[in-house]
Design goal:
Layout (H helix, E strand, L loop, with lengths): L13 H18 L1 E5 H20 L2 H10 L3 H14 L8 E8 L6 E7 L6 H62 L2
Antiparallel strand pairs: 1-3, 2-3
Length: about 180
């Protein structure tokens, strides 16, 4: 049995609170952002994030469980297809609450709650894309790699005498410069 929420319930009774949260969640998934009171936004956040987690699973049991809470099939379809795909790489934190000041009529503190649909971070998205591209390139490069090894061994044997000659020339140049540096002291 879930632990009851602390403080007074939204709207009076528990059934009314459940319906209100379901309707707020449906509006959030339909419009991607809604303006409401801070209290309702804070109460909606874990409810909506739990539904997004079910949508990320994507199986039939999860869809039926969400349909038991949100009765609009169009909103549930959008949740499972669009929103779940947009937050697939995110491990939580699917919503964001931003306080916007007080309401004019009754001075109630207001907030905007919105879905966070952008990638986790642009740098991580680029790194993940580069890693995927490198993984695709590796299987294609493995077959010609054996031929390249044979070619490089042949090239190294031809270049070895030339490299030894260059190293000897560099040593001679260093010994010629060394006495000149000692004379200046």
């Amino acid at each position: 049995m879930p632990t009851p929420t602390k403080g007074p319930r939204l709207g009076g009774g528990p059934a009314h609170e459940r319906l209100m949260l379901a309707n707020l969640a449906a509006a959030l998934f339909e419009h991607k952002r809604i303006t409401t009171t801070v209290t309702k936004a804070k109460r909606l956040k874990p409810y909506a994030e739990r539904l997004v987690t079910f949508a990320k699973r994507g199986d039939l049991a999860s869809r039926r469980r969400v349909l038991g809470l949100i009765s609009d099939k169009g909103v549930v379809h959008e949740l499972f297809t669009d929103i779940a795909g947009a937050v697939a790489n995110r491990d939580g934190g699917y919503t964001r609450i931003t306080k916007i000041g007080n309401r004019k009529g009754d001075n109630a503190p207001m907030a905007v709650i919105e879905l966070v649909l952008e990638p986790v971070s642009p740098k991580q998205a680029v790194v993940a894309e580069a890693t995927a591209a490198a993984a695709k390139a590796v299987p294609a490069a493995e077959a010609p790699a054996e031929e390249e090894v044979v070619e490089t061994e042949a090239a190294e044997t031809e270049e070895a005498p030339a490299a030894e000659a260059e190293a000897a020339d560099a040593e001679v140049a260093e010994t010629e410069e060394a006495p000149a540096a000692e004379d200046k002291k």
